[in-house]
Amino acid sequence: xxxxxxxxxxxxxxxxxxxxxxxxxxxxxxxxxxxxxxxxxxxxxxxxxxxxxxxxxxxxxxxxxxxxxxxxxxxxxxxxxxxxxxxxxxxxxxxxxxxxxxxxxxxxxxxxxxxxxxxxxxxxxxxxxxxxxxxxxxxxxxxxxxxxxxxxxxxxxxxxxxxxxxxxxxxxxxxxxxxxxxxxxxxxxxxxxxxxxxxxxxxxxxxxxx
Length: 210
Fold this sequence. Notes:
Elements lengths: L4 E5 L3 H12 L3 E5 L9 E2 L6 H6 L5 E4 L6 H14 L6 E2 L4 E2 L4 E2 L4 E2 L4 E2 L4 E2 L4 E2 L4 E2 L4 E2 L4 E2 L4 E2 L4 E2 L4 E2 L4 E2 L4 E2 L4 E2 L4 E2 L8 E2 L12
Parallel strand pairs: 1-2, 1-4, 2-3, 5-8, 6-9, 7-10, 8-11, 9-12, 10-13, 11-14, 12-15, 13-16, 14-17, 15-18, 16-19, 17-20, 18-21, 20-22
């Protein structure tokens, strides 16, 4: 799809960052949705207008540009694109390093400085922000958001909808289960249960407030 016109769903800071990656990959930014005064292109309507814009021939595809501040909204937008059959390309910045044996799913964005190792599988609608390292044989599920500087050591599994904060480190062979949150700077030495939040070194559940 390189060279085609891409709609960015969301014109905030993350949307503009996604647009930078898309342009580096050779796409043309057709515009943004929802936020007036976006930095690039024109605001073409609301997030719900993507199927109509595709049908009218004004765009060739769309990608979710909503950031970590609204993870449920990211998933809602992706599901709507999928239901409507709107193409959503995988984007990997030319300054990211990807093994020839890795797989990047539709609608996922790999930012500059990332290193993605041999056999890594990345699901759909995933964000790997700048400087993320995902070593060999990691499995990253759909809708995962990985903040800048995260290190996933070999054979780590990150399940659907998990969030990893900036600079977190996950030791080899561990699993971050669905919907879990790993705080910025945490060092994960044990697998994290579904929906849990962990922080600190070593990572643990927060102390209950008294």
